[in-house]
């Protein structure tokens, strides 16, 4: 967990917004979004309790900014992937690299749903996911369902990974590589013997 001193060392005049975002991500990664408090973040940063509110208005505004940032990072991670399976691998790796963002992004109850920056970032990420589906779905009428299936697989794998439900099955293997192999097996209609039992 981030300490007050480490936030103060990272804070310089003019970048309080980024300092608060970074501190919030530390809190979420350690204790979940429910532990987030603007007053606590201000105390950690050594600024007045009103300073974070100047940038985010309220806790929901801060979580909305984190979600928008996360969707932007996800879109960048997915960009230029050669096919849908590689987009799935990048989705899993994004979740592993940005667990706090991932916890917040898919919780619409935590956001200002009409926030323009959030809506634009979500659309950018969705466009990158759709671009991957376009490489696979020859029939436009099935593209939407193909996208739902692919997203469900990658998101489910990422969620199981972040909640440590895959610790034993992965046995230290790289999650992205395991996901790539599983996606290939499912795409070919073949499952390993262990999955049939």
Characterization of this structure:
Helix content is 73%, strand content 0%. The protein has 197 residues and is mostly helical. It has 2 domains: 4-56, Arc Repressor Mutant, subunit A (Orthogonal Bundle), CATH 1.10.10; 61-190, Tetracycline Repressor, domain 2, CATH 1.10.357. Helix 2 packs across helix 3 (38-45) and helix 3 packs across helix 4 (50-56). The longest helix has 23 residues, at 140-162. The chain is globular. Mean pLDDT is 86; it is low at 1-13 and 189-197.
Brief overview:
The protein is mainly α. It has helices at residues 4-10, 16-31, 38-45, 50-56, 59-78, 84-97, 99-105, 116-134, 140-162, 167-170, 175-188, 193-196. The chain has two domains: 4-56, Arc Repressor Mutant, subunit A; 61-190, Orthogonal Bundle (Tetracycline Repressor, domain 2), CATH 1.10.357.
Note the topology.
Elements: H1 4-10, H2 16-31, H3 38-45, H4 50-56, H5 59-78, H6 84-97, H7 99-105, H8 116-134, H9 140-162, H10 167-170, H11 175-188, H12 193-196
